[in-house]
Amino acid sequence: MARHTPVGKRRRQIAEAAGELFAERGVQATTVRDIGARVGVLSGSLYHHFRTKQEIVHELMHAYGEDLLARYRAAEQEGGNSRARLERLFRACVRANLAHPNETAVLIHEQDRLFRSEEFDYIHEIVAAVEVIFVAVIEEGARSGELRDDLDPAFLYRMMMDVMGAVQRWYDPEQHSEDAVVGAWLDVFLRGIAAEPPEATGWEAPNA
Q1: Largest CA distance in the chain
Q2: For residues 49 and 14, is the Cβ–Cβ distance under 8 A?
Q3: CB-based contacts of 194: which residues, under 8 Å, 6+ apart?
Q4: Distances 115 to 51, 54, 65, 120, 124 between C-alpha atoms, Å
Q5: Where on the phi/psi map is residue 46: left (φ > 0), alpha (ψ -120 to 50), or beta?
Q6: Is 56 exposed, middle or buried (0-12, 13-18, 19+ CB in 10 A)?
Q7: How far is CA 49 from the centre of its chain?
C-alpha cells in the first residue's frame, strides 16, 4: 500500500525546498517546475498546496518575520544596560540567521526588488520595527555615556546589520561558537580595530 505524506508536512517540504532555491537563485529565476523537481513532485501537484509561487514566498516570509521580531523583542525586554542588551540582540541575530538561513538570504536579495510590491509591505514594517529596537538601545547607551553620542544611531544600526547579516554564510559550528562570534562583534563595535586611538580625520558618517 502506498504511503501518503500528510498535507501539512508536504506543504512544509515544498516551502523549505522553495526557500533553498530562492536563496540560491532568487525568486524571479526560480520556477514552479524547479521547486517540484527539488521536492520530488510534479509541478502540477504543487498547486494542491500553493496556488502561486508568490504564496510560497509569503508562507516563508510571514513565519520568518514573526519569529525574527519575537526574538528581538524578547532580547530587548530583558533589561539591563545597553551593552547587555546589545549582546542579547547580537545573540538573537546569530540564532535567527542560523535558524533561517534561506529566508535571511531572500530578505537581503529581494528587499529592493520583489519586496517593493505593496503586498510585501509587512516585510518592510518588520524591518523597520527591528531598527526601532536597535536604535532605541543605541540611543539609550549614548545618553548614559556607555556609547559615543556623536554618531548617528541609525547609521550604526545599519552598519551592524550589514556585518551580522552574513553570519549564516560562513558560520561553521565545528570551527565557531556563538559566544565567540557575539563577543567578537561586541569587541569590534564597542572598541574598534585601531591599536591606538586614531587622529581625528574630519570625516563624518553620512546621515541614514
Answers
A1: 77
A2: yes
A3: none
A4: 19, 11, 13, 5, 8
A5: alpha
A6: buried
A7: 26
Tens digit of pLDDT at every position of the chain (208 positions): 344 556 688 899 999 999 999 999 999 999 999 999 999 988 788 888 999 999 999 999 999 999 999 999 999 999 899 999 999 999 999 999 999 999 999 999 999 899 999 999 999 999 999 999 999 999 999 999 999 999 999 999 999 999 998 899 999 999 999 999 999 999 999 988 888 765 654 445 555 4
User: Quick check: 188 and 96 in contact, CB under 8 A?
Assistant: no
CB 30 within 8 A of CB 22: yes
Q: What are the contacts of 120-126 at 24+ separation with CB within 8 A? A: 120/61, 122/62, 122/65, 123/61, 123/65, 126/65, 126/66, 126/68, 126/69
Fold annotation for 1-51: Arc Repressor Mutant, subunit A (1.10.10)
* Contact (Cβ atoms closer than 8 angstroms) between residue 75 and residue 89: yes
pTM of the complete model: 0.85
Indicate the length of the chain as a whole number: 208
Could you say which DSSP state residue 114 is in? Answer: G
* Fold that domain 54-191 belongs to in CATH: Tetracycline Repressor; domain 2 (1.10.357)
Instruction: Evaluate whether 106 touches 19 at the Cβ level (below 8 Å).
Output: yes
Tell me the domain boundaries of the chain: 1-51, 54-191
Grid cell of 129 as nine digits: 520595527
